[in-house]
């Protein structure tokens, strides 16, 4: 299925203000959000950065807001009952905008 990831981006060295960037990818509904983020980083945009560690839902380092809810990207698959095929991803709200995103 074709899915659009809308990812919150900000690089304090080059960007005046934060913005969202869309990435359209083909993915399987059973793919995890973190797998698609890796695909985007490795195949589309090498400047994308995000935290992750164990990839098993134990450490919590890949916590982010996905479609407005706090979730672990390694535990959520693309079949998370989304009405549209748009995945909106941003850092957790308690993270500062000056952090590397």
Query: CATH superfamily, called what?
Result: Beta-grasp domain
Total number of strands: 5
CATH topology: Ubiquitin-like (UB roll)
Order of helices and strands: EEHEEE
With strands numbered from the N-terminus, the spatial order across the biggest sheet is 2-1-5-3-4
- Report on the biggest sheet: 5 strands, mixed
What count of helical segments does DSSP give? 1
Radius of gyration based on Cα positions: 13 Å
CATH structural architecture: Roll
Unreliable runs, pLDDT <50, ≥5 residues?
Answer: 95-101
> Given the helix and strand composition, which structural class is it?
alpha+beta
Query: Into which percentage range does the β-strand content fall?
Result: 25-35%
| CATH class value | Alpha Beta
Mean of the pLDDT scores? 82
Quick overview:
The chain has 101 residues and is of the alpha+beta class.
Task: Report on this structure.
With 101 residues, the protein is of the alpha+beta class. It has one domain: Ubiquitin-like (UB roll) (Roll). The protein contains 1 helix and 5 strands; from the N terminus they run E-E-H-E-E-E. It has a 5-stranded mixed β-sheet with strand order 2-1-5-3-4, with helices on one face. Strand 3 and strand 4 form a beta hairpin. The longest helix is centred in the middle third of the chain and has 12 residues. It starts with a strand and ends in an 11-residue tail after the last strand.
